[in-house]
Amino acid sequence: MSSSNPSSIPVVVDLDGTLISTDLLIETANGFVTRQHLRALRMLAWLLAGKCELKTRLAEACGIDPAHLPYNQALLSWLHEQKELGRRLVLATASHLTLAEAVARHLGIFDEVLASQAGTNLKGSAKRDALVDRYGERGFDYVGNEAADLVVWRSARRAYVVGSSPRLIRDVQVLGTLGRVFHDARPSAFGSLLKAMRLHQWLKNLLVLVPLLAAHRYGDPASLVPALLAFLAFGLAASGVYLLNDLADVAADRQHPRKRRRPFAAGHLSLLHGWLAWPVLQLAAFSLAALALPPAFLAWLTAYFVLTLAYSLVLKRIVLVDVLTLAGLYTLRIVAGASAIGVTPSFWLLAFSTFFFLSLAFIKRYSEIKAGIGSQGKVHGRGYLHGDLETVSSLGIGAGQVSVLVLALYIQDSHTAVMYHSPEFIWLACPLLLYWVSRAWLIAHRGGMHDDPLVFAIKDPASWLIGLGFGLAFALARMAP
Protein backbone atom coordinates (compact mmCIF):
# COMPACT_ATOMS: atom_id res chain seq x y z
CA MET A 1 0.00 0.00 0.00
CA SER A 2 1.10 3.54 -0.66
CA SER A 3 -0.05 6.86 0.70
CA SER A 4 0.43 10.52 -0.09
CA ASN A 5 0.63 11.25 3.63
CA PRO A 6 4.30 10.74 4.65
CA SER A 7 3.38 10.19 8.31
CA SER A 8 1.45 7.07 7.31
CA ILE A 9 4.52 5.56 5.67
CA PRO A 10 6.47 3.40 8.15
CA VAL A 11 10.20 3.81 8.54
CA VAL A 12 11.89 0.41 8.36
CA VAL A 13 15.36 0.28 9.89
CA ASP A 14 18.07 -2.33 9.47
CA LEU A 15 20.02 -3.24 12.62
CA ASP A 16 23.50 -4.63 11.89
CA GLY A 17 25.84 -1.96 10.53
CA THR A 18 22.99 0.52 10.39
CA LEU A 19 21.39 1.20 13.76
CA ILE A 20 24.46 -0.30 15.45
CA SER A 21 28.02 -0.28 14.11
CA THR A 22 28.52 -3.99 14.70
CA ASP A 23 26.91 -7.29 13.68
CA LEU A 24 25.01 -9.33 16.26
CA LEU A 25 25.81 -12.65 14.57
CA ILE A 26 29.52 -11.90 14.93
CA GLU A 27 28.94 -10.52 18.43
CA THR A 28 27.27 -13.73 19.62
CA ALA A 29 29.84 -15.91 17.85
CA ASN A 30 32.61 -13.92 19.53
CA GLY A 31 30.93 -14.29 22.90
CA PHE A 32 30.47 -18.02 22.42
CA VAL A 33 34.10 -18.63 21.45
CA THR A 34 35.57 -16.50 24.25
CA ARG A 35 33.25 -17.71 27.02
CA GLN A 36 32.73 -21.33 25.95
CA HIS A 37 35.92 -21.91 23.98
CA LEU A 38 35.91 -25.65 24.65
CA ARG A 39 32.63 -25.89 22.72
CA ALA A 40 33.64 -23.55 19.89
CA LEU A 41 33.75 -26.29 17.25
CA ARG A 42 30.01 -26.77 17.70
CA MET A 43 29.51 -23.63 15.64
CA LEU A 44 30.76 -25.50 12.57
CA ALA A 45 28.07 -28.17 12.99
CA TRP A 46 25.42 -25.48 13.44
CA LEU A 47 26.59 -23.66 10.32
CA LEU A 48 26.47 -26.88 8.28
CA ALA A 49 22.82 -27.17 9.34
CA GLY A 50 22.18 -23.70 7.89
CA LYS A 51 22.75 -20.07 8.78
CA CYS A 52 19.38 -19.85 10.53
CA GLU A 53 20.36 -22.74 12.79
CA LEU A 54 23.66 -21.01 13.61
CA LYS A 55 21.90 -17.75 14.49
CA THR A 56 19.32 -19.54 16.62
CA ARG A 57 21.88 -21.58 18.57
CA LEU A 58 24.14 -18.61 19.18
CA ALA A 59 21.21 -16.42 20.29
CA GLU A 60 20.24 -19.13 22.78
CA ALA A 61 23.80 -19.61 24.04
CA CYS A 62 24.93 -15.96 24.18
CA GLY A 63 22.68 -13.05 24.91
CA ILE A 64 23.60 -9.40 24.36
CA ASP A 65 23.60 -6.29 26.49
CA PRO A 66 21.55 -3.87 24.35
CA ALA A 67 22.23 -0.96 26.69
CA HIS A 68 25.91 -0.80 25.75
CA LEU A 69 25.92 -1.60 22.04
CA PRO A 70 27.61 1.00 19.78
CA TYR A 71 24.55 2.79 18.39
CA ASN A 72 24.58 5.22 15.48
CA GLN A 73 23.62 8.32 17.48
CA ALA A 74 22.85 10.50 14.44
CA LEU A 75 20.43 7.91 13.08
CA LEU A 76 18.94 7.32 16.51
CA SER A 77 18.24 11.04 16.93
CA TRP A 78 16.55 11.15 13.52
CA LEU A 79 14.40 8.14 14.40
CA HIS A 80 13.23 9.89 17.58
CA GLU A 81 12.27 12.88 15.45
CA GLN A 82 10.28 10.65 13.09
CA LYS A 83 8.59 9.00 16.07
CA GLU A 84 7.51 12.40 17.37
CA LEU A 85 6.01 13.15 13.94
CA GLY A 86 3.78 10.14 14.44
CA ARG A 87 5.53 7.74 12.08
CA ARG A 88 5.53 4.00 12.66
CA LEU A 89 9.02 2.59 13.22
CA VAL A 90 9.87 -0.99 12.27
CA LEU A 91 13.10 -2.82 13.07
CA ALA A 92 13.81 -5.32 10.28
CA THR A 93 17.02 -7.30 10.57
CA ALA A 94 18.78 -10.49 9.58
CA SER A 95 19.79 -10.94 13.22
CA HIS A 96 17.85 -13.43 15.30
CA LEU A 97 14.45 -12.36 16.60
CA THR A 98 15.46 -12.80 20.26
CA LEU A 99 18.34 -10.35 19.89
CA ALA A 100 16.36 -7.85 17.81
CA GLU A 101 13.53 -7.80 20.34
CA ALA A 102 16.04 -7.12 23.13
CA VAL A 103 17.32 -4.07 21.24
CA ALA A 104 13.77 -2.89 20.52
CA ARG A 105 12.77 -3.20 24.19
CA HIS A 106 15.79 -1.22 25.27
CA LEU A 107 15.22 1.65 22.82
CA GLY A 108 11.46 1.71 23.27
CA ILE A 109 10.72 3.42 19.92
CA PHE A 110 9.87 0.53 17.60
CA ASP A 111 6.31 -0.52 16.90
CA GLU A 112 7.20 -3.81 15.26
CA VAL A 113 10.17 -6.16 14.93
CA LEU A 114 10.88 -8.38 11.94
CA ALA A 115 13.90 -10.65 12.22
CA SER A 116 15.39 -14.03 11.38
CA GLN A 117 14.04 -17.07 13.16
CA ALA A 118 13.80 -20.82 12.54
CA GLY A 119 13.81 -21.45 8.81
CA THR A 120 13.91 -17.79 7.77
CA ASN A 121 17.00 -15.64 7.23
CA LEU A 122 15.59 -12.14 6.83
CA LYS A 123 18.15 -10.66 4.48
CA GLY A 124 18.09 -9.26 0.95
CA SER A 125 15.17 -10.58 -1.11
CA ALA A 126 13.59 -12.32 1.89
CA LYS A 127 13.44 -9.01 3.75
CA ARG A 128 12.08 -7.21 0.67
CA ASP A 129 9.33 -9.81 0.23
CA ALA A 130 8.32 -9.61 3.90
CA LEU A 131 8.10 -5.81 3.78
CA VAL A 132 6.17 -5.70 0.49
CA ASP A 133 3.71 -8.28 1.86
CA ARG A 134 3.05 -6.03 4.87
CA TYR A 135 3.20 -2.54 3.42
CA GLY A 136 3.02 -2.95 -0.35
CA GLU A 137 5.36 -1.79 -3.09
CA ARG A 138 6.62 1.74 -2.26
CA GLY A 139 4.69 1.56 0.97
CA PHE A 140 7.64 2.01 3.33
CA ASP A 141 10.89 3.95 3.74
CA TYR A 142 14.00 1.89 4.37
CA VAL A 143 17.27 2.63 6.17
CA GLY A 144 20.17 0.32 5.29
CA ASN A 145 23.93 0.25 4.95
CA GLU A 146 25.17 -2.27 2.40
CA ALA A 147 24.82 -3.59 -1.14
CA ALA A 148 22.55 -6.42 0.08
CA ASP A 149 19.98 -3.71 0.90
CA LEU A 150 19.71 -2.54 -2.73
CA VAL A 151 16.97 -5.05 -3.45
CA VAL A 152 14.99 -3.63 -0.51
CA TRP A 153 15.61 -0.02 -1.53
CA ARG A 154 14.19 -0.77 -5.01
CA SER A 155 10.82 -1.50 -3.40
CA ALA A 156 10.97 1.37 -0.90
CA ARG A 157 9.41 4.82 -1.26
CA ARG A 158 12.53 6.52 0.16
CA ALA A 159 16.02 5.13 0.56
CA TYR A 160 18.14 6.23 3.53
CA VAL A 161 21.78 5.20 3.54
CA VAL A 162 24.12 4.76 6.51
CA GLY A 163 27.75 4.85 5.40
CA SER A 164 30.24 6.77 3.31
CA SER A 165 30.88 4.36 0.42
CA PRO A 166 30.75 6.47 -2.78
CA ARG A 167 29.82 3.42 -4.82
CA LEU A 168 26.90 2.47 -2.58
CA ILE A 169 25.60 6.03 -2.49
CA ARG A 170 25.89 6.26 -6.28
CA ASP A 171 23.99 2.98 -6.72
CA VAL A 172 21.18 4.26 -4.51
CA GLN A 173 21.09 7.61 -6.31
CA VAL A 174 20.47 5.73 -9.56
CA LEU A 175 17.20 4.45 -8.04
CA GLY A 176 16.01 8.06 -7.75
CA THR A 177 14.64 7.61 -4.23
CA LEU A 178 17.59 8.71 -2.06
CA GLY A 179 16.32 10.63 0.94
CA ARG A 180 19.31 11.18 3.21
CA VAL A 181 22.78 9.85 3.81
CA PHE A 182 23.96 9.34 7.38
CA HIS A 183 27.68 9.55 6.75
CA ASP A 184 29.92 7.14 8.61
CA ALA A 185 32.14 9.14 10.96
CA ARG A 186 34.19 6.10 11.97
CA PRO A 187 37.96 6.15 11.39
CA SER A 188 39.45 3.89 8.74
CA ALA A 189 39.61 0.17 9.44
CA PHE A 190 43.40 0.21 9.03
CA GLY A 191 43.83 3.09 11.48
CA SER A 192 41.51 1.37 13.94
CA LEU A 193 43.49 -1.86 13.60
CA LEU A 194 46.75 -0.06 14.39
CA LYS A 195 45.09 1.52 17.42
CA ALA A 196 43.79 -1.87 18.57
CA MET A 197 47.30 -3.29 18.21
CA ARG A 198 48.40 -0.70 20.80
CA LEU A 199 51.78 0.02 19.29
CA HIS A 200 52.54 2.36 22.21
CA GLN A 201 52.43 -0.73 24.44
CA TRP A 202 55.50 -2.02 22.63
CA LEU A 203 57.38 0.10 25.16
CA LYS A 204 56.69 -2.72 27.61
CA ASN A 205 58.68 -5.01 25.38
CA LEU A 206 61.77 -2.87 25.93
CA LEU A 207 62.11 -5.15 28.96
CA VAL A 208 63.45 -7.70 26.48
CA LEU A 209 66.49 -5.41 26.15
CA VAL A 210 67.12 -5.17 29.90
CA PRO A 211 69.44 -8.24 30.01
CA LEU A 212 71.45 -6.69 27.15
CA LEU A 213 71.93 -3.53 29.22
CA ALA A 214 72.49 -5.38 32.48
CA ALA A 215 75.20 -7.53 30.87
CA HIS A 216 76.72 -4.39 29.27
CA ARG A 217 76.61 -5.99 25.81
CA TYR A 218 74.90 -3.07 24.05
CA GLY A 219 78.08 -2.44 22.01
CA ASP A 220 78.29 -6.01 20.74
CA PRO A 221 76.46 -6.50 17.39
CA ALA A 222 76.30 -10.26 18.00
CA SER A 223 74.09 -9.55 21.02
CA LEU A 224 72.41 -6.34 19.86
CA VAL A 225 70.88 -7.81 16.68
CA PRO A 226 69.17 -10.81 18.32
CA ALA A 227 68.00 -8.56 21.15
CA LEU A 228 66.31 -6.21 18.67
CA LEU A 229 64.78 -9.15 16.79
CA ALA A 230 63.48 -10.47 20.11
CA PHE A 231 61.92 -7.05 20.77
CA LEU A 232 60.19 -7.16 17.37
CA ALA A 233 58.94 -10.71 17.90
CA PHE A 234 57.51 -9.83 21.30
CA GLY A 235 55.91 -6.71 19.86
CA LEU A 236 54.09 -8.67 17.17
CA ALA A 237 53.04 -11.35 19.65
CA ALA A 238 51.87 -8.77 22.19
CA SER A 239 49.80 -6.91 19.59
CA GLY A 240 48.12 -10.16 18.61
CA VAL A 241 47.35 -10.85 22.24
CA TYR A 242 45.95 -7.33 22.73
CA LEU A 243 43.56 -7.96 19.86
CA LEU A 244 42.49 -11.28 21.35
CA ASN A 245 42.15 -9.77 24.82
CA ASP A 246 39.92 -6.97 23.49
CA LEU A 247 37.79 -9.50 21.63
CA ALA A 248 37.32 -11.49 24.82
CA ASP A 249 36.64 -8.36 26.87
CA VAL A 250 34.50 -6.35 24.45
CA ALA A 251 31.32 -6.56 26.55
CA ALA A 252 33.12 -5.40 29.71
CA ASP A 253 34.98 -2.66 27.83
CA ARG A 254 31.69 -1.14 26.69
CA GLN A 255 30.79 -0.52 30.32
CA HIS A 256 34.09 1.20 31.09
CA PRO A 257 34.35 5.01 30.82
CA ARG A 258 37.61 4.86 28.83
CA LYS A 259 37.82 1.37 27.40
CA ARG A 260 34.48 1.79 25.63
CA ARG A 261 36.37 3.94 23.10
CA ARG A 262 38.59 1.03 22.09
CA PRO A 263 38.07 0.10 18.39
CA PHE A 264 36.15 -3.15 18.97
CA ALA A 265 34.02 -1.81 21.81
CA ALA A 266 33.16 1.38 19.92
CA GLY A 267 32.29 -0.49 16.74
CA HIS A 268 35.09 1.19 14.77
CA LEU A 269 36.63 -2.18 13.91
CA SER A 270 34.75 -5.36 13.08
CA LEU A 271 35.20 -8.24 15.50
CA LEU A 272 35.70 -10.42 12.43
CA HIS A 273 38.73 -8.32 11.42
CA GLY A 274 40.17 -8.97 14.86
CA TRP A 275 39.74 -12.73 14.52
CA LEU A 276 41.53 -12.57 11.18
CA ALA A 277 44.35 -10.29 12.34
CA TRP A 278 45.52 -11.76 15.63
CA PRO A 279 46.55 -15.19 14.24
CA VAL A 280 48.49 -13.44 11.45
CA LEU A 281 50.43 -11.41 14.01
CA GLN A 282 51.17 -14.53 16.06
CA LEU A 283 52.33 -16.39 12.95
CA ALA A 284 54.70 -13.54 12.08
CA ALA A 285 56.07 -13.43 15.65
CA PHE A 286 56.69 -17.17 15.93
CA SER A 287 58.13 -17.42 12.42
CA LEU A 288 60.65 -14.70 13.26
CA ALA A 289 61.55 -16.42 16.52
CA ALA A 290 61.93 -19.85 14.90
CA LEU A 291 64.06 -18.62 12.00
CA ALA A 292 66.31 -16.03 13.63
CA LEU A 293 66.54 -16.67 17.37
CA PRO A 294 67.64 -19.46 19.74
CA PRO A 295 65.21 -22.30 20.57
CA ALA A 296 65.13 -21.14 24.20
CA PHE A 297 63.66 -17.80 23.14
CA LEU A 298 61.00 -19.56 21.08
CA ALA A 299 60.10 -21.59 24.16
CA TRP A 300 59.72 -18.45 26.29
CA LEU A 301 57.68 -16.73 23.57
CA THR A 302 55.40 -19.78 23.51
CA ALA A 303 55.06 -19.59 27.29
CA TYR A 304 54.20 -15.90 27.00
CA PHE A 305 51.47 -16.61 24.45
CA VAL A 306 49.97 -19.49 26.44
CA LEU A 307 49.97 -17.46 29.66
CA THR A 308 48.45 -14.39 28.02
CA LEU A 309 45.82 -16.57 26.35
CA ALA A 310 44.95 -18.09 29.72
CA TYR A 311 44.86 -14.61 31.21
CA SER A 312 42.52 -13.28 28.50
CA LEU A 313 40.10 -16.17 28.76
CA VAL A 314 40.17 -17.14 32.44
CA LEU A 315 42.84 -15.79 34.79
CA LYS A 316 41.92 -12.10 34.65
CA ARG A 317 38.65 -12.94 36.41
CA ILE A 318 40.36 -14.65 39.37
CA VAL A 319 41.22 -12.40 42.31
CA LEU A 320 45.01 -11.98 42.94
CA VAL A 321 45.86 -14.60 40.31
CA ASP A 322 45.25 -11.88 37.72
CA VAL A 323 47.81 -9.44 39.14
CA LEU A 324 50.37 -12.18 39.78
CA THR A 325 49.96 -13.22 36.14
CA LEU A 326 50.47 -9.66 34.91
CA ALA A 327 53.63 -9.31 37.00
CA GLY A 328 54.83 -12.68 35.71
CA LEU A 329 54.31 -11.61 32.11
CA TYR A 330 56.54 -8.58 32.64
CA THR A 331 59.26 -10.68 34.22
CA LEU A 332 58.93 -13.29 31.50
CA ARG A 333 59.93 -10.66 28.94
CA ILE A 334 63.21 -10.16 30.79
CA VAL A 335 63.90 -13.90 30.91
CA ALA A 336 63.11 -14.21 27.21
CA GLY A 337 65.44 -11.32 26.40
CA ALA A 338 68.21 -13.05 28.32
CA SER A 339 67.68 -16.27 26.36
CA ALA A 340 67.88 -14.34 23.07
CA ILE A 341 71.48 -13.24 23.80
CA GLY A 342 72.53 -16.32 25.78
CA VAL A 343 72.88 -14.89 29.29
CA THR A 344 71.35 -15.86 32.62
CA PRO A 345 69.32 -13.13 34.36
CA SER A 346 70.43 -12.43 37.93
CA PHE A 347 68.37 -13.22 41.00
CA TRP A 348 68.27 -9.51 41.86
CA LEU A 349 66.89 -8.51 38.48
CA LEU A 350 64.13 -11.10 38.60
CA ALA A 351 63.21 -10.26 42.20
CA PHE A 352 63.10 -6.52 41.49
CA SER A 353 61.02 -7.07 38.36
CA THR A 354 58.51 -9.31 40.13
CA PHE A 355 57.78 -6.88 42.99
CA PHE A 356 57.88 -3.69 40.92
CA PHE A 357 55.52 -4.98 38.26
CA LEU A 358 53.27 -6.55 40.86
CA SER A 359 52.83 -3.04 42.25
CA LEU A 360 51.93 -1.74 38.77
CA ALA A 361 49.44 -4.57 38.29
CA PHE A 362 47.78 -3.65 41.57
CA ILE A 363 47.60 0.01 40.45
CA LYS A 364 45.79 -1.16 37.32
CA ARG A 365 43.22 -3.09 39.33
CA TYR A 366 42.92 -0.33 41.94
CA SER A 367 42.06 2.21 39.24
CA GLU A 368 39.39 -0.10 37.80
CA ILE A 369 37.80 -0.67 41.19
CA LYS A 370 37.90 3.03 42.07
CA ALA A 371 36.20 3.90 38.78
CA GLY A 372 33.16 2.10 40.18
CA ILE A 373 32.54 -0.11 37.19
CA GLY A 374 29.81 -2.75 37.45
CA SER A 375 26.86 -3.27 39.75
CA GLN A 376 25.94 -4.98 43.02
CA GLY A 377 29.36 -4.16 44.46
CA LYS A 378 31.33 -6.18 41.90
CA VAL A 379 33.67 -4.86 39.22
CA HIS A 380 32.35 -5.98 35.84
CA GLY A 381 34.52 -8.62 34.19
CA ARG A 382 36.76 -8.98 37.25
CA GLY A 383 36.56 -10.91 40.51
CA TYR A 384 37.00 -7.88 42.78
CA LEU A 385 34.43 -6.16 44.96
CA HIS A 386 34.34 -2.41 45.51
CA GLY A 387 35.12 -3.14 49.16
CA ASP A 388 38.49 -4.61 48.14
CA LEU A 389 39.82 -1.15 47.27
CA GLU A 390 41.94 -0.54 50.37
CA THR A 391 43.28 -4.10 50.47
CA VAL A 392 44.42 -3.85 46.86
CA SER A 393 46.05 -0.51 47.68
CA SER A 394 47.93 -1.91 50.68
CA LEU A 395 49.21 -4.92 48.74
CA GLY A 396 50.29 -2.77 45.81
CA ILE A 397 52.11 -0.15 47.88
CA GLY A 398 53.86 -2.90 49.82
CA ALA A 399 55.03 -4.60 46.63
CA GLY A 400 56.39 -1.31 45.29
CA GLN A 401 58.36 -0.62 48.47
CA VAL A 402 59.80 -4.14 48.48
CA SER A 403 61.11 -3.52 44.94
CA VAL A 404 63.05 -0.52 46.29
CA LEU A 405 64.43 -2.70 49.07
CA VAL A 406 65.58 -5.31 46.53
CA LEU A 407 67.40 -2.58 44.59
CA ALA A 408 69.13 -1.41 47.77
CA LEU A 409 70.25 -4.94 48.64
CA TYR A 410 71.56 -5.41 45.08
CA ILE A 411 73.99 -2.55 45.65
CA GLN A 412 75.68 -4.50 48.44
CA ASP A 413 76.02 -7.73 46.46
CA SER A 414 79.58 -8.81 45.64
CA HIS A 415 78.67 -9.38 42.00
CA THR A 416 77.61 -5.74 41.70
CA ALA A 417 81.11 -4.59 42.64
CA VAL A 418 82.43 -6.58 39.69
CA MET A 419 79.91 -5.12 37.23
CA TYR A 420 80.22 -1.47 38.34
CA HIS A 421 83.25 0.66 39.20
CA SER A 422 81.34 2.70 41.79
CA PRO A 423 78.13 0.84 42.77
CA GLU A 424 77.43 3.39 45.51
CA PHE A 425 76.06 5.72 42.82
CA ILE A 426 73.16 3.29 42.40
CA TRP A 427 71.94 4.53 45.79
CA LEU A 428 70.77 7.64 43.92
CA ALA A 429 68.24 5.47 42.09
CA CYS A 430 66.61 4.27 45.31
CA PRO A 431 64.96 7.54 46.41
CA LEU A 432 63.96 8.23 42.80
CA LEU A 433 62.21 4.88 42.54
CA LEU A 434 60.64 5.27 45.99
CA TYR A 435 59.35 8.70 44.98
CA TRP A 436 57.88 7.41 41.70
CA VAL A 437 56.09 4.47 43.31
CA SER A 438 54.73 6.62 46.14
CA ARG A 439 53.64 9.37 43.76
CA ALA A 440 51.93 6.91 41.40
CA TRP A 441 49.89 5.47 44.25
CA LEU A 442 49.06 8.93 45.59
CA ILE A 443 47.73 9.90 42.15
CA ALA A 444 45.77 6.64 42.00
CA HIS A 445 44.19 7.38 45.38
CA ARG A 446 43.16 10.82 44.11
CA GLY A 447 41.48 9.22 41.10
CA GLY A 448 43.91 10.67 38.56
CA MET A 449 45.65 7.46 37.47
CA HIS A 450 45.00 6.02 34.03
CA ASP A 451 43.90 2.39 34.30
CA ASP A 452 47.12 1.48 32.48
CA PRO A 453 50.13 2.78 34.48
CA LEU A 454 52.31 2.62 31.36
CA VAL A 455 50.09 5.13 29.55
CA PHE A 456 50.29 7.33 32.64
CA ALA A 457 54.11 7.13 32.65
CA ILE A 458 54.36 7.90 28.93
CA LYS A 459 52.28 11.06 29.30
CA ASP A 460 53.77 12.15 32.63
CA PRO A 461 56.79 14.53 32.34
CA ALA A 462 57.84 13.78 35.92
CA SER A 463 58.10 10.07 35.09
CA TRP A 464 60.41 10.85 32.19
CA LEU A 465 62.66 12.97 34.42
CA ILE A 466 62.74 10.27 37.09
CA GLY A 467 63.55 7.64 34.46
CA LEU A 468 66.37 9.82 33.16
CA GLY A 469 67.76 10.23 36.67
CA PHE A 470 67.44 6.48 37.28
CA GLY A 471 69.46 5.70 34.16
CA LEU A 472 72.02 8.37 35.02
CA ALA A 473 72.63 6.78 38.41
CA PHE A 474 73.53 3.46 36.77
CA ALA A 475 75.66 5.23 34.15
CA LEU A 476 77.65 6.97 36.86
CA ALA A 477 78.09 3.70 38.72
CA ARG A 478 79.44 2.13 35.55
CA MET A 479 81.75 4.94 34.45
CA ALA A 480 82.98 6.59 37.65
CA PRO A 481 86.53 5.55 38.69
Structure at a glance:
The protein has 481 residues and is an alpha/beta fold.
Describe the structure in your own words.
This protein has 481 residues and is of the alpha/beta class. Among the domains are: 6-182, Rossmann fold (3-Layer(aba) Sandwich); 189-345, Orthogonal Bundle (Tetracycline Repressor, domain 2). Helices cover 59% and strands 6% of the residues.
Keywords:
Rossmann fold; Tetracycline Repressor, domain 2; 6-stranded parallel beta sheet; 22 helices; 59% helix
Secondary-structure element pattern, one letter each: EHHHHEHEHEHEHEHHHHHHHHHHHHHH
The low-confidence runs, each spanning 5 or more residues with pLDDT under 50, are: none
Residues in β-strands, percent: 5-15%
- Decide which structural class fits the backbone: alpha/beta
Radius of gyration: 28 Å
- The CATH class of the domain at 6-182 turns out to be Alpha Beta
Largest sheet: 6 strands, parallel
The end-to-end distance, rounded to whole angstroms, is 95 Å
- Strands of the widest sheet, in order across it, are 3-2-1-4-5-6
CATH architecture of the domain at 6-182, by name, is: 3-Layer(aba) Sandwich
Helix content: 55-70%
What is the fold-level CATH name, i.e. the topology of the domain at 6-182? Rossmann fold
Mean pLDDT: 92
What is the number of beta strands? Answer: 6
CATH superfamily of the domain at 6-182: HAD superfamily/HAD-like
The outline comes out as elongated
**SS element count, helices:** 22
